[in-house]
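On clarity, I found the account of how folds are encoded harder to follow than it need be. What matters is that the chain and its backbone geometry are given together, residue for residue. The format is easy to grasp once an entry is in front of the reader. For illustration, here is how one protein appears when written out as sequence plus structure tokens.
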Amino acid sequence: MQFFVIFARKTQATWCAAEVPRTSDQIQPKLMNYIRYWQASGESLKTSIRVKTRLSQLTGEGCYTGGSYPFGYRIVKQGRLNKKGQEVYDLVVDENEAQIIRLIFHKYADEGYGAQRLCHWLYEQGITSREGKGFPNTTINRIIKNRIYIGVLKNGETEIKLEHLRIIDNALFARAQTVMDSRVNKHRSIPMNNKGKSLLVGKIYCAHCGNRLTISTSGHKMKNADGQEGYITRLRYQCHYQVRHPGECDGQSVYVASRVDAIVDEILRLKFSEIKAASKAEILKKQGERDLRAARLRLEKAEKQLQFHEEDQRDFQKEVLKVIRGESKLSMGFLNSAIEQTEKSIEADKKAVESAQLNLEQIEELAAARNEELDEIITWADIYSNASLERKKMIVGQLIKKVCISRGYLVSVDFNITFEELQRAIVGEYTEETGISTTFLPAIRLQTSA
């Protein structure tokens, strides 16, 4: 302001090419506005920083900081006071809405419902938001991505885990994220949608020409016993290549979908019964015991080698003192060379120990991942028989690579790698030398004819 007062006293004139000259007295109001704006802008930035910092601190303490709150929760006063002594709200789970959240995640992650299909399904079931309106598909997507449902409260870069805000478990949330990511991934195992009534769409191929089969329908009208007319629809897997290129594919042009689905369904029931009959501990032992043992031996060997060279280094250093005192027959040049070589060996040994330790940690992580995968497969084995068609399609999408079918309904099923390894561990013969199954029963490639 002092600068402006001096500037005003000078009554300097300003010129513009298109206007008459003006003195500072004439432009003083505008200059004052610019200066006030500049001062206010600086204060506004400082205030913003202070507010954001305080909100982050409150979030770090597990406090609700105001604003709209997610579906599945409500705000209540529980006696917490602010600096002014006023009672403020806290966030708690609304059990009525939480049931809807669990239902949304279950339908999305376990039965393969997409956001669009879910919003229509919820509307048909009469399930609405707290405003009495339906759930748009954008809201469904936001719900699926929101980590607050696993108890993570976040504000900006600050987040804190609060178990009392948890509505779903981590496993269900992780499955939902996997489904969402898989549907935007080109090489996905999760089906884009589960609306159809066939089990194997996108997974079934013609064994003769190698082309994927598509679903087609046919049907006819019929009268019921009470005289009412109805329409029967039949689903078929069709080889379009055989239809479009006569003579180049010697397989059937169509296969009855219900018949093929029943064959694959029976194969899965058989495999799941084998899994349920096997010991989980024995399966994990066969899958990871050899790799863990080898990694531990490698680390132990590297540590012993490092210890050996460190002892050599200490001995050489003691020998240097003897040379200085004239008590050793070794020369100083020889000792310097030996110490230098030993230091290089120690450096290499430390790198080998780090590499072996990292390898062991990776194998232990893989063992933990296998344990989670096995838990999921065992869960599938328990629920598959009574699961809905949508749930079965989700299980098939993650367990089966492809199904090939040839004339006479000869079916060949290729499982994914994890399931193949599990099957080999269950039905194969385990050997200490190889650590893997030496027999390949119908675990990797199972053929069945109707």
Residues 79 and 207 are 70 Å apart (CA to CA). The two ends are 95 Å apart (CA to CA). DSSP finds twelve helices and 13 strands in the chain. The chain has three domains: 2-60, 73-184, 277-449.
